[in-house]
Amino acid sequence: MSFELQRKELMATKNFIAGVWQDAVAGETLSVNNPATGERVALVPNSDAKDAKAAVDAAAHAFEAWRTTPAKQRAVILKRWNDLIMACADDLGKIISSEQGKPLSEAVGEIAYAASYVEWFAEEATRANGDIIPQAVRGRKMSAYREPVGIVAAITPWNFPAAMIARKIAPALAAGCTVVCKPAAETPLTALALVKLAEEAGVPAGVLNIVITASSKEVADVWLDDARVRKITFTGSTPVGKHLAHESSRTLKKLALELGGNAPFIVFDDADIDAAVEGLMVAKFRNGGQTCVCPNRVYVQSKVYGTFLEKLTARVSALVVGPASNSASQIGPMINAKAISKIEEHVNDAVARGARVLTGGQRLFTEQRAESTYYAPTVLADVDRAARCFHEETFGPVAPITSFETEAEVIEMANDSPFGLASYFYTNDMRRVHRVTDALECGIVGVNEGALAAEAAPFGGVKDSGYGREGSVHGLEEYMHIKYVCQGGLE
């Protein structure tokens, strides 16, 4: 690693099944590499179906004891986990930066964000209240209880390796579920470190199990076929989410799918332009543009179009690109060469359709590796509506912008997408705030705000962006089902 850890034992490199750190059954390994340099950070297990089944066996064995553990006791364990995560925030941030590439300050910020979910659901564990239903017939009492759904399979992405783990596992454990987890092969070390701390916090053996693999389908298929797994929570691409939904129907699992996005960002001519530029900087260039809620289509009303472009270009051209080891870096490397190629294809396509490159628009090369994983932060003006970057997630530091004339026109453009995760708009007209909020087809709306996520808020989309919610009280309900009890003969 390019960073020195204070707690070196957090660099865990094995599967964790039934409370035991172990290699893959077949003995296979895969390499985790630093995207900035291409250098190996660690070797981890490359698990297969046997490891996946062993994880479910462990979770099944532990479920009864965990589900009957008093909610307050589960909350105490989660609070200890939160405290340990925050105490190790610097080390965990260094692990994220080493395997994912984001600047260290941003990585440490992600740890605080991840811990907020653990703390929130520790508190919510004791509030999973049921209902007393008014009697319809004399001599009868009716009630409804919330119970854990059972074993949860969590499949997480590489872009937020700490936050996505915490946002899925914390509510599952709070609800009384046991977990089998498969983090992204690109960034498993953060997940393993968090599990190490969960073990230290007192999570019992078998309650939380993690397997690492490059063969995602092989592991997922085991969990899809196993009727003991009662819920799948997944963050990733829409095609994979649809596959999981289809295949899980055989055992009627509960699903929470946070899938692809194509977020519009709208600037009306009555907006505070400086605030809108700042909001776009926060929303678009966080994590180098590698987030599912990044604005992918920027619409600016024609009256303020030139002013907005000028101010945004000045801000974007000043961003510092570099490795996480450089404290001045604001934009790190993309996750791999494939990601760079996609960004390049989108920019070239937009330019071929008449877009103007105001800043950036090219790969950046370093002495650290011949194959570039850096892309210059880019502003594209006059982007055609048919351009690929307006219809596919670019997942990179590229802001494609076009102008519009009327509110009705931009609403039609914003909703002209199969996706519906997040939307943003800036205006100082309060009547417009309500009109546009109601009209946008999405699960999350940022009004004069570029930073949306919070542990107390429900996160999720509509249409091809999936269903189910993470965070908030709704996020806990995703891991529970309701049991209705009718007791008669009381008179």
UniProtKB/TrEMBL annotation:
Residues 21-485 form the Aldehyde dehydrogenase domain. Its EC number is 1.2.1.20. GO terms for molecular function: glutarate-semialdehyde dehydrogenase (NADP+) activity; succinate-semialdehyde dehydrogenase (NAD+) activity. It holds the Pfam family Aldedh. It comes from the Bacteria. The keyword Transcription does not apply. The active site is at 258. One of its GO terms (biological process) is gamma-aminobutyric acid catabolic process. Transmembrane segments: none annotated. The keyword NADP applies. Keywords: NADP, Oxidoreductase. CDD domains: ALDH_F5_SSADH_GabD (cd07103). Belongs to the aldehyde dehydrogenase family. This is Glutarate-semialdehyde dehydrogenase DavD. It comes from Pseudomonas reidholzensis. The gene is davD.
